[in-house]
Amino acid sequence: MENLRRLVGEIAQTRRQDLPKLSPLQRSFIPLLSFSSIIYGFALFVRHQLYYFGFFHRHRLPVPVISVGNLTWGGNGKTPMVEFIAHWFIKSGVSPLILTRGYAGGDEAKMLQRHLIGTPAKIGVGANRIAIAACFFGRYGYLDSRSRKECFDRLHTDLNVEMRSNTDKIGAVILDDGLQHWRLHRDLEILMVNGMMPWGNGQLLPLGPLREPLSALSRADVAVIHNAEMVPSRELKDIELMIREVKKNLPIFLTKLAPSYFFEVKNYCSKLPLTVVSHMAVFCVSAIGFASAFVQEIEKMGPLYVDRLGFSDHHWFQYKDIVMMKQRLRKLQDEFGAMPIVVVTEKDYDRDPLILRLMDPYKVLVLCCQLQIVPSGGHTEKCFNKLLKQFMEVNFS
């Protein structure tokens, strides 16, 4: 199954003009995948029409909702953006509720829980996000329009003072992976785009990586191009032009994941500097949507050599995977005459931290990163925060 996922993933990320260069086995799958994409596209169209003509209704929550979503699978920076916005709300004195589906074991939800521990942020996990939200509102309560206005007035009085929430009541909802979750009304739609592979081959699932046609860009209020520091400026301009062809005046921001430190799998409280991998043989292991950005960040840290092993997104490491990794590590050790270091992402750690301890005697480090907004054309972090403040002005006052 893992090999099949990898095979289909390679087809989806191959540009249309390069499809003839694929292996005969991969090309043999294209007719079946094309037919499946047509069926998927038709189902999307029918679903959209049912909402458009009122057969299906959107549920409105009693507090403002920000949706963070994407058009393609993996590597879009969606979850780091959710965390970024959650911290902004917390600093503004608002307790946010994050609603996430918890796909494939909930590795992203676990990462959010670890990062936001000790804050007033709440995290609801489950496919039925309306029911999950109702449970949290029943347990903690929520700020009504009058309370939200008082909250905004306090913030507006002194913008230099970092507000602290004095209530557990929920003031806003952040919908993780919300673009395709049409059941919930949202007040602000943020769409994330992977700058290193924005649209893949431009086809719908499963032939391509698109979860919706590019016309869905028109529903966005803000577009964010992620991994921007790894993309040539000319390609960034092309992505921006393509976005503006769909929605001319859409605000576009650039972001990146900035590495901050490592921690050891056996001690998540440890903090090791990024220089710990300098002049070392490093083995990058990941099961995320777009591993190339992760590997490139490690390469920037000055290791002696970087080997990599990638699995499909959300893959659960098995004992046989550990055996295969150790075989690769022994080869690296023989080649370089020293113990190599294994590096994984936080999502890989949070999926199953215990199995990674079976890598002994090799040290396993987890790379921790934070989302940063890359200044571009006047669109800075200050501008993004101003956009969020305007969102509060409209929905809190």
TrEMBL record:
Residue intervals passing through the bilayer: 28-46
One GO molecular-function entry: ATP binding
Coiled-coil features, chain-numbered ranges: none
InterPro entries in alphabetical order: LpxK
Keywords, comma-separated and alphabetical: ATP-binding, Kinase, Lipid A biosynthesis, Lipid biosynthesis, Lipid metabolism, Membrane, Nucleotide-binding, Transferase, Transmembrane, Transmembrane helix
Gene Ontology terms: cellular component: membrane
Signal peptide extent: none
Enzyme class: transferase
Pfam short name (any one): LpxK
GO biological process: lipid A biosynthetic process
Entry EC number(s): 2.7.1.130
Domain of life: Eukaryota
Pathway: Glycolipid biosynthesis; lipid IV(A) biosynthesis; lipid IV(A) from (3R)-3-hydroxytetradecanoyl-[acyl-carrier-protein] and UDP-N-acetyl-alpha-D-glucosamine: step 6/6
HAMAP family linked: LpxK (MF_00409)
PANTHER family reported for this sequence: TETRAACYLDISACCHARIDE 4'-KINASE, TETRAACYLDISACCHARIDE 4'-KINASE, MITOCHONDRIAL-RELATED
Name this polypeptide is given: tetraacyldisaccharide 4'-kinase
Organism whose genome encodes this protein: Nelumbo nucifera
Gene name per UniProt: LOC104612775
